[in-house]
Amino acid sequence: MKHISVPKIDLSSVKNYNTIDLIDTDFAILDNINNIPLFDYPSIIETTVFALCLKGNCKITINLNEYNICPNDMILLMPNQIVMLCEKSDDVSGLFIVVSKNFSNEILPSTEDMLSVFFYAKESPKTTLNPNEIKCLKEYHSFLRNKVKETENIYRKEIIRILLKSLFYEIANITKKKIPEKSIRKSRKTEVFESFLKTVATHYKQQRSVTFYADKLYLTPKYLSCVIKEISGKSAGEWIDEQVILAAKALLKSSNMTIQEISVELNFANQSFFGKYFKQHTGISPKAYRKI
């Protein structure tokens, strides 16, 4: 039986578009998405994406949540999120920077304070900016684009790396000012939460047991459950189920796989068990969801 995963998008998907400035498959910068046929169906992004809308508007879903994007709105997308472009105006334009997962891991600040910012951005990817913030990010975008074009500069990639790290700090600073005080987490336990999310993103198709993830992180299930609940307000089991349901919804909407094939893809014992699991978490059967 042939299994088809949720479509994934990385920088190899756009390397042949001459309207995009690229460095290998690590970094891309552009200001027009009208001619790029990406995100027309639910797709897992394998990159970090920064976007700032300057003109027009569009409607996108991120992890199946719908967002209306208008001028002055900034969007920050993280690897392993499920994204779909629902509609856009003909005049939509803005600034776009795309960074590969590996390059992001090298650049993204990993301090405890910064992690809280990026966790918040993952849950609240849309931020409306003021004129000074927009001016700052436009300057970074312009400088980065000019540097990418300096193909004879032997240190071009290192310069880009440093500029991107600075840009991430600027974005984090902007985002942090928007975070409600009660949402800022100061505990070192954020590192456990981050590792848990990464592990779930890797193994959710095979494993839905909290014990499995606790073992992977060398923690007791009780301790892991307490940490995840404290940091996120949701249980470890809820995070696992959410990832499985998101993938199931994407497969039901964007593939021609049968429900039986999807149940096998997501490692359920049989179609009946998958159906009960899906309905328990969504209130609707897989068949009915596909028809919506």
Automatic annotation (TrEMBL):
InterPro entries: Homeodomain-like_sf, HTH_AraC, HTH_AraC-typ_CS, Tscrpt_reg_AraC-type_HTH. GO terms for molecular function: DNA-binding transcription factor activity; sequence-specific DNA binding. Residues 194-292 form the HTH araC/xylS-type domain. SMART domains: HTH_ARAC (SM00342). This is AraC-like DNA-binding protein. PROSITE patterns: HTH_ARAC_FAMILY_1, HTH_ARAC_FAMILY_2. Pfam families: HTH_18. Keywords: DNA-binding, Transcription, Transcription regulation.
